[in-house]
TrEMBL record, chain A:
Coiled-coil stretches: none
Superkingdom of origin organism: Eukaryota
Gene Ontology CC, one term: cytoplasm
One Gene Ontology biological process: erythrocyte homeostasis
Organism: Otolemur garnettii
Name listed for the protein in its UniProt record: BBSome interacting protein 1
From TrEMBL, chain B:
TPR repeat windows: 351-384, 422-455
Entry keyword annotation includes Transmembrane: no
Gene3D superfamilies reported in the protein's UniProt record: Tetratricopeptide repeat domain
Protein's UniProt name: Tetratricopeptide repeat protein 8
Length: 67, 506
């Protein structure tokens, strides 16, 4: 092990000593990608029922206008 | 159908009912009732068929209107201790992914993997927030919760031109409460189909009296009525009394719902655990615990319980979706991909799933599947909001491969489909800024921050841009908004510190 150590010598740069970090430049952030939540069966049924109800109302209103 | 005319009509109607052909069943019953108006069997069968058509599991239904939320006087403590309330967005103490990685909802919770009626848009914290929230299809909530039910009730009546099937005001409730079998079906008809909670409550009260308070079923129904009327303490009493008589999973779930409405998540958790002692491994109870932990922003515990759910039922969509999204947002897209692929195998086939598969594939470096998944998602989208979200995510893929033109087009398309897509406005602003279009970027960011004041990104970006062009005052205001939305954001803190130094030098 001692031989191995002597084979490699550390190298320290003569100039710019101590520059271990770079100052952080603030960059703008993107909003993150959005996984879409899956819908529960109840929610799907609710939405379908509401859609159907709205369609019926719209149809009836159309029919009333035509008369 | 060939056998139809020869069959005894009541038997045929009954058979339709059992095969869930409720419209046919109801029509046949109507014919029978025209011939003999006092046929009780046909009458009650029709009521049951009509109920089944609009039946929604009451445990899942929980949409609070603005009025209920803001004028809520049931909460015990106005300023609850951290960890004991669902109302304050808990700061991230439990090691879940930070806001910088996982987007949050308007209520300040991380977005969930699964959407139920009650998770639809979260509670806004203040009146101002509730009213100022853009009323898009996603976030619009009724002024009062009964609004939605009234609308559905009238709609079901619209479909029958001769007026309602049963005229509730002319019903002799005392007479029906003497006949328990009729009364139960009639109650469900009044509750689910007519949404006339007051009449339903009257019938239930008479019936429970008739059963000498020995039937737990009626107590649960009275509790359901009280709950819908917003009388949570009375509902609690009924459910507790029902549980004393007969322990049922449903009753535990209803009671827990009461506690959640009273903003007592810890009591609800204890109750679920009591339920689990009686019904070990019951999936709905386990799932209830997981949901509360998730709402309280305790993601590790939520995941633990969702995993417990999957041990009992390995096809539970909610658990798979929630665990999947947790993995995605904790930097393990390849694990998330396996969960979403499992859903695909199970036969879930919709826009949301393919969008998630596309994202997971991209971030797990399975590029061959990415674009095809997104194409499929686009073709399966049911409304413009869904299309907008898919284009928005495609924009991220474009940013990821460095194609800014494509990204620009994707975010634009997201906005074409949904004019309220705040995230797309923000990302578009970042792209504009890279091109050096400062004024356009600022305008986009202002739109984004007014659409979604709960997101920190537009505030922070606006602060950064303003700082660069020397508008320190605006920068400081925006940075403070950003800090309010995301207190732990290091860059915001730096910016504020810098600005304070500037101001001190003046």
């Amino acid at each position: 092990m001692a031989e191995m150590k002597s084979m490699f010598r550390e190298v320290l740069p003569k100039q710019d000593i101590g520059q271990l970090s770079v100052e952080d430049v603030t960059t703008m952030v993107l909003c993150k990608p959005k996984l879409l939540p899956l819908k529960s069966l109840t929610l799907e049924k609710l939405e379908k029922m509401q859609q159907a109800a709205q369609d019926t109302i719209r149809q009836q209103e159309m029919a009333e206008k035509e008369q | 159908a060939a056998m139809g005319p020869d069959m005894e009509p009541l038997l045929l109607a009954w058979s339709y009912f059992r095969r869930r052909k409720f419209q046919l069943c109801a029509d046949l019953c109507t014919q029978m009732l025209e011939k003999s108006p006092y046929d009780q069997a046909a009458w009650i069968l029709k009521a049951r068929a009509l109920t089944e058509m609009v039946y929604i599991d009451e445990i899942d239904v929980d949409q609070e209107g603005i009025a209920e939320m803001i004028l809520d006087e049931n909460a015990i403590a106005q300023v609850p201790r951290p960890g004991t309330s669902l109302k304050l967005p808990v700061t991230n103490q439990t090691g879940g992914p930070s806001q910088a990685i996982r987007p949050i909802t308007q209520a300040g919770r991380p977005i969930t993997g699964f959407l139920r009626p009650s998770t639809q848009s979260g509670r806004p914290g203040t009146m101002e927030q509730a009213i100022r929230t853009p009323r898009t299809a996603y976030t619009a909530r009724p002024i009062t919760s009964s609004g939605r039910f009234v609308r559905m009730g009238t709609a079901s009546m619209l479909t029958s031109p001769d007026g309602p099937f049963i005229n509730l005001s002319r019903l002799n409730l005392t007479k029906y409460s003497q006949k328990p079998k009729l009364a139960k079906a009639l109650f469900e008809y009044i509750f689910h189909h007519e949404n006339d909670i007051k009449t339903a409550l009257d019938l239930a009260a008479l019936s429970t009296e008739h059963s000498q308070y020995k039937d737990w079923w009626w107590k649960v129904q009275i509790g359901k009525c009280y709950y819908r009327l917003g009388m949570y303490r009375e509902a609690e009493k009924q459910f507790k009394s029902a549980l004393k008589q007969q322990e049922m999973v449903d009753t535990f779930l209803y009671l827990a719902k009461v506690y959640i409405s009273l903003d007592q998540p810890v009591t609800a958790l204890t109750l679920y655990k009591q339920g689990l002692d009686k019904f070990p491994g019951e999936v709905t109870l386990l799932c209830g615990i997981a949901r509360i932990y998730e709402e309280m922003n305790n993601i590790p515990s939520a995941t633990e319980y969702y995993k417990e759910v999957l041990k009992q039922d390995n096809t539970h969509v909610e658990a798979i979706a929630c665990i999947g999204s947790n993995h995605f947002y904790s930097d393990q897209p390849e694990v998330a991909l396996r969960f979403y692929r499992r859903l695909l195998q199970m036969g879930v086939y919709n826009c949301q799933l393919f969008n998630n598969l596309g994202l997971c594939c991209f971030y797990a470096q399975q590029y061959d599947m990415t674009l095809t998944s997104f194409e499929r998602a686009l073709s399966l989208a049911e409304n413009e909001e869904e299309t907008a979200d898919v284009w928005y995510n495609l924009g991220h893929v474009a940013v990821g491969i460095g194609d800014t033109n494509l990204a620009h087009q994707c975010f634009r398309l997201a906005l074409v489909n949904n004019n309220h897509h705040a995230e797309a406005y923000n990302n578009l602003a970042v792209l504009e800024m890279r091109k050096g279009h400062v004024e356009q970027a600022r305008a986009l960011l202002q739109t984004a921050s007014s659409l979604a004041p709960h997101m920190y990104e537009p505030h922070f970006n606006f602060a950064t841009v303003s700082d660069k062009i020397g508008d320190l005052q605006r920068s400081y205001v925006a940075a403070q908004k950003s800090e309010a939305a995301f207190p732990d954001h290091v860059d915001t803190q730096h910016l504020i510190k810098q600005l304070k130094q500037h101001f001190a030098m003046l």
